[in-house]
Task: structure prediction
Amino acid sequence: MAQIIPFRAWRYNPQLTPYIDDLTSPLFDVVSEKQRKALYQNPHNSIHLSVPRPPDAAERAALLLEAWKKTGVILQDALPGIYVYYQYFKLAGAPNANVRKGFICHIRIHEFDEGKILRHENTIPKAVNDRIELLEKTELQVSPTHGLYTDSDFELEKYMDQAILNPIYETEDYQGVRDVLAVIHDAEVIKKFIRKLDEKTVILADGHHRYEGSLYHKRKQQKENPEHTGNEGYNFHLMYLTNTEADDLRILPTHRLIRNLKDFDEQAIMKKLEPNFIIKPVEDSDTLNEIIAGKQWAFGLMFRDNAYKVRLKPEAIKNLRWHFPDEVKQLDLTVMHYFIIEQALGIPGKEQRQSENIEFDRSFSDCLKRVLQGESQLAIITNEVSIEEVKKVCYSGFTMPQKSTYFYPKVICGFLFSSIKEKEFQEPAYSPFAL
Result:
């Protein structure tokens, strides 16, 4: 099924790593404009490779990357390894701390219809194009996507637990999460990881845009290379893999914000919702997330002056006309995108992926602030998706609406980089993992 291999990461020069906190950055799709401006002040921060400044952002990143290699800002590890990555965190209001255990490796890229790597949500084309250009110019994978495998025996965890006792890096990131990186070089242990994943299907949790960028790049390179063997660097993608059976997966809700919608009329919207929803006014909009918590097909609608709890009438689900299997139709997010965004707001489903009227925000307080300040016309508050729902959708062959899940915590950028340049990708002759 999924083929993984170890790799020789590019990492910051040990002279810089005592300051690793100053070199890491949030992923390209979650870093705020304010964070970018602050991180750009450090000439060696990883933000310069993950979200390079315009103009000619990708070309700028490529030139900087070569300069870093030549001057020794980053160095390539001599031995191939599996990089163990633990994230220690605690959710607000939760009594216990958590640790998400995983490892970073190269994984062979497959088309989605091959059934070896599965996606669970749609992507936004503009974001994919941005990742493609950066990958083509740099041939560097700056941060790993997040993939899920299922192993109820927890065979690999004992090796990861042992490795993490000797960390390479340890830092507290922008989320307040403690990130720890270690490496496994033992060839026999690495082979156990390879064999375990060879039995598994992998589900993309986070990083659909980066994976699709790699997939596009592979197709293009394969077409242009008459001597294609399947073992070139462009056939592989950098991935962080975690076990779905561990009690450390957290999926936070991602709310929808509506802005600049023409002919926006609160009363007209609520009138359109009446046939299919039970509607209850809410006095305090700052309690919406608590009121809908755990209730199927329940949403909070937050206007500037009014707030409502709306819940789909059970018999109304038969009115959902999108041609999806029941696993997808039953999702809160499908109900929201069909009955609220398409039927009530008038944004057709086929246009929603690229609509400039829809924004995404996982912060409930941020949604509240933006609506009250008039930056958004409406916030649609929703519940989180479960990992079991993600699995069901993946195995159905369909996808969820874009930005359906927010796996927490996010991995960070800057601990390591992966090159797919042929001379840097191929293992040296002494490696037992040479392709």
